[in-house]
Amino acid sequence: MKFIATTLVTVALASGTAFAQATPPAAPAGDAAVVAKFKAADKNSNGSLDGTELDGYKANMTKIDTDKDGKISQVEFVAAAKAGHIK
Q1: Domain range spanning residue 45?
Q2: pTM across the whole model
Q3: Predicted confidence band of residue 1 (pLDDT cuts 50, 70, 90)
Q4: DSSP label at 33?
Q5: pLDDT tens digit string along 30-63?
Q6: In-domain check, residue 38
């Protein structure tokens, strides 16, 4: 009986850890071409445009970077493309 209780506690703790892992927010369903353009611009594949990756978007940065963190996330990129700020 003690073995069963220990096993159940171990399984419960292990599964709790798996469920607690953070997942990045999903980008809104966007046009595949827009997502492909974002991925092509994200040269270091870190999930956001930063540093020299921003060079082509600096003119519209205030409209694109809605959370004002100095980077463009895929969510921001797709929204900006839908709004016409990215062609």
Answers
A1: 29-87
A2: 0.66
A3: low
A4: H
A5: 589 999 999 999 999 999 999 999 999 999 999 9
A6: yes
Query: Which domain CATH number covers 56?
Result: 1.10.238.10
Phi-psi region for residue 70, left (φ > 0), alpha (ψ -120 to 50) or beta?
Answer: left
CA 24 to chain centre: 5
Domain count, the chain: 1
Q: What is the Cα–Cα distance from 38 to 30, expressed in whole angstroms?
A: 11
Query: CB 61: neighbour CB atoms within 10 A?
Result: 15
Domain membership of residue 79 (yes or no) is yes
Buried residues in 26-51 as b, exposed as e (16+ CB within 10 A): ebeebeeebbebbeebbeeeeebbbe
Q: Is residue 10 a part of any domain in this protein? A: no
Average predicted confidence (pLDDT) for the chain: 82
Q: Is residue 15 part of a domain?
A: no
